[in-house]
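Hey team,

Filing this mostly as a record. A colleague (T.K.) asked me to run one chain through the structure pipeline before their review meeting, and I want the input and output archived in the tracker in case anyone asks later how it was produced. No errors, nothing strange. Just documentation.

Input sequence:
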Amino acid sequence: MLDRLLDGLPDATAVCVFTNWLGWHPLIQADHERVERNSKRDDPHAPKPEIRYGEREEQRVREHENPKTDRFDLVFRKVDVLERDLNREGAQEQPPCTNRNARELAEAAPRHEQHHYDGNDRHQEQRHPRTVATRRDPAVVPYAPAMAEVEYSVDRYAARVTINRPDRRNAMSADVMRQLRDAVAAAKSDDGVRVVILTGAGDQAFCAGADLGSLADNTGAIAAHDGRGELARLFRDLWSLGKPTIARVRGFALAGGFGLAMACDLVVAADDAVFGTPEINVGLWPFMITVPILRVLSPRIALELMATGRRLDAAEALRLGLVNRVVPVGELDSAVDELAETLAAKSPVAMRLGRDSFYRSLDMRADDALDYLQSMLTIMTLSEDTAEGIAAFAEKRAPNWRNR
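Output structure:
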């Protein structure tokens, strides 16, 4: 066909036509790209799906043979490299392995009996299986712990929230953060829940931080920026929960996982726990967890940990005041349950008002805080729970809290 086109043409013209046919001439090539971009408008095969399918298959082959790289691919590839570096660094210092006996395995198994707790009786009637109302959908929908990356269950007075990604050392993806917020919202709306326990599945990590690869999977810079704020929103949800929270920490609590533990009210750690902010080692900085860390640690020590990436074992974390209690691995669950039972036995009204005022006063000037706390004391004395508590003390009996 080409021979017939060139036959009879002058040599110079033939060369021009030949090079243009190959797509070498820049003007012809640019025009070809313009036509290709506007092809859908005048596509004669649009109503013929079988032809469109063949063209799509041909296009996929061409793209496979001639891959294109844009700046978003480069950014995501860099994020993947950073994630692998963090994962490799975590793997270099695995917590010491401890054999778990049958009792520990039984305690770690999901609990199916759920009871209402009134602060006095530990063995009351069984409740119906738990459901979760999400923030985005007001309807109550069944929660499927076996299929979710965040498991939520209620046993009597305590809600247990578990990050269920042990193969990723319980790293938090954007979906995990959203599910954590849903679980916190469910616990807040349930009057039967008096305390929330936050933990990670498996025996290697509480949470090794953010899943950088998943956080980079978005449609643009605005979506990426908003996604990075999900962890901050989770911190706010925890602080405004109105109920005490306990971080049950075993293994690694690094980067965002470190911040998540510090955002809880109390921390009970196994003696194999490891805390740290390794972001600096891969060219990042722990921006989002600065606030929860500064709420429990002196600025000088906090800056040292962030600037050096140094890790803390459980003993040093206890000495610095980052955790409330350190116990052997085999005693972790019993220690957490004991603390949860103690908290659940207190007045829900006093716990809510007192806890809210505690966090609010942290961000106030001393004079303003004193005026605010004086008002809160007056409000508290008007509650039915305060009257019941004083009466029970005078009558030497256990109080029967009314949550009013």
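Quick notes for T.K.: The chain has three domains: 1-37, 73-344, 348-395. The chain is about 50% helix and 10% strand.
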